[in-house]
C-alpha cells in the first residue's frame, strides 16, 4: 500500500483535510502539525474527509482524539471536528476506544474537492524523538479519555517512554 497523503483546503469558515490511504503512525506528526497550525491561524471548524481512508491506527486515532479535546478548550467560539464519510471500521474503532463523542460523523460529497492542495510531508527531517513523542502522547490521550483503554495501551506507552528517553539521550 502506498504512503498516505494529506491534502488541505480552507474557506473563511472551515479547514478541510483529506487523508487518502491508511491514517497511521507514519503521517501522524504531519497531521498533528497541520491541524494545530490551522487552529493557531484561527480556524475552529475542521472537516476530515475520510472518503479514501480505509483504516486508522491507534497513534493517528490518539492524535485525532487529542485534537478533538483541545480544539474546544482553545477557543471561546464553538469549535467542531467533523468526520466526512468515515467507513464502518473507523466508526467502530472510535466507538471501541471511547472517543466517538468528540466528533460528528456525516456522509456526503465534499464541495471543496477541487480546491485541495497536497500537504508536503516531512521527508525524514522530523526526528525519531518527535515521532516517538507523538506516539506516546497519542496513546496517553486514549488512556486518559477512556480508562478501558489502559490495558490496551499500557505496554506500548511504557515502551515508547523508554524509547523516547533513549532517543533524547542520544541527541544530548
The CA-CA distance between the termini, in Å, is: 36 Å
Radius of gyration: 16 Å
Number of helices: 5
Structural class: alpha/beta
Number of DSSP strand runs: 6
- Assess the beta-strand content as a share of residues: 15-25%
Run of helices and strands = EEHEHEHEEHH
Which strand order spans the largest sheet, edge to edge or round the barrel?
5-4-3-2-1-6
**Largest sheet report:** 6 strands, mixed
In one word, what is the shape?
globular
Q: What is the mean predicted local confidence, pLDDT?
A: 87
Please estimate the helix content.
40-55%
Q: Runs with pLDDT <50, length 5+?
A: none
What would your notes on this structure say?
This protein is an alpha/beta fold and 172 residues long. It has five helices and six strands; from the N terminus they run ββαβαβαββαα. The protein has helices at residues 25-40, 58-73, 88-96, 128-145, 150-171; strands at 5-10, 15-20, 45-49, 80-84, 104-106, 117-118. The protein has a six-stranded mixed beta sheet with strand order 5-4-3-2-1-6, with helices on one face. Helix 1 (25-40) crosses helix 4, helix 2 (58-73) packs across helix 4 (128-145) and helix 4 runs antiparallel to helix 5 (150-171).
Give the topology, please.
Elements: E1 5-10, E2 15-20, H1 25-40, E3 45-49, H2 58-73, E4 80-84, H3 88-96, E5 104-106, E6 117-118, H4 128-145, H5 150-171
Parallel strand pairs: 2-3, 3-4, 4-5
Antiparallel strand pairs: 1-2, 1-6
Helix pairs in contact: 1-2, 1-4, 2-4, 4-5
Features:
alpha/beta, six-stranded mixed sheet, 5 helices, globular
Amino acid at each position: 500500500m502506498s504512503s498516505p497523503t494529506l491534502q488541505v483546503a480552507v474557506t473563511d469558515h472551515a479547514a478541510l483535510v483529506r487523508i487518502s490511504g491508511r491514517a497511521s503512525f507514519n503521517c501522524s506528526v504531519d497531521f498533528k502539525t497541520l491541524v494545530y497550525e490551522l487552529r493557531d491561524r484561527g480556524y475552529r471548524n475542521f472537516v476530515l474527509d475520510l472518503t479514501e481512508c480505509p483504516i486508522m491506527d491507534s497513534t493517528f486515532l490518539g492524535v485525532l482524539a487529542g485534537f478533538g479535546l483541545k480544539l474546544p478548550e482553545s477557543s471561546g467560539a464553538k469549535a467542531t471536528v467533523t468526520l466526512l464519510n468515515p467507513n464502518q471500521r473507523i466508526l467502530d474503532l472510535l466507538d471501541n476506544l471511547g472517543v466517538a463523542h468528540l466528533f460528528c460523523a456525516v456522509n456526503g460529497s465534499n464541495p471543496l474537492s477541487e480546491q485541495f492542495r497536497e500537504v508536503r510531508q516531512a521527508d525524514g527531517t522530523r526526528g525519531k524523538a518527535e515521532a516517538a513523542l507523538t506516539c506516546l502522547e497519542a496513546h496517553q490521550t486514549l488512556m486518559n479519555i477512556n480508562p478501558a483503554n489502559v490495558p490496551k495501551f499500557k505496554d506500548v506507552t511504557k515502551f515508547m517512554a523508554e524509547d523516547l528517553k533513549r532517543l533524547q539521550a542520544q541527541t544530548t
